[in-house]
Amino acid sequence: MKSDTTTTVLNFVLVLLAVSGVIFAILTFTRTREYRILTSTVNNDRAVLQQVESLVAQVEAYNKQVQSPELTRDLQPFTKPATK
Predict the structure, then answer these.
(1) What's the 3-state SS for 15-66?
(2) How far apart are CA 62 and CA 58, in angstroms?
(3) How far apart are CA 32 and CA 81, in angstroms?
(4) Predicted confidence (pLDDT) per residue in 10-63, tens digit
């Protein structure tokens, strides 16, 4: 090239783009890994929540048969209020 200044500027831009490409690749790798970990955690939490909801439904059905005031009081935080 004719100008050393132009060559220097273009080399600097090239290095800057290469470094930013490496940084973005590392960020993508770490965020993808974190997303996979969070996805498996969410799936496990959903399974536990389904088990708890099933247990609450079974206890509610039992409470309808037995009519226990203590059990009714204990179930209040888990029951959904009726919508209008």
Answers:
(1) HHHHHHHHHHHHHHHHHHHHHHHHHHHHHHHHHHHHHHHHHHHHHHHHHHHH
(2) 6
(3) 39
(4) 999 999 999 999 999 999 999 999 999 999 999 999 999 999 999 999 998 998
| pTM for the whole structure | 0.59
Distance (Å, whole) CA 15 – CA 13: 5
Mark 33-66 as b/e (b = at least 16 C-beta within 10 Å): eeeeeeeeeeeeeeeeeeeeeeeeeeeeeebeee
> Which tens digit of pLDDT belongs to each residue from 6-15?
999 999 999 9
Distance, CA of 69 to CA of 74 (rounded, Å) = 9
Q: How many CB atoms lie within 10 A of CB 7?
A: 11
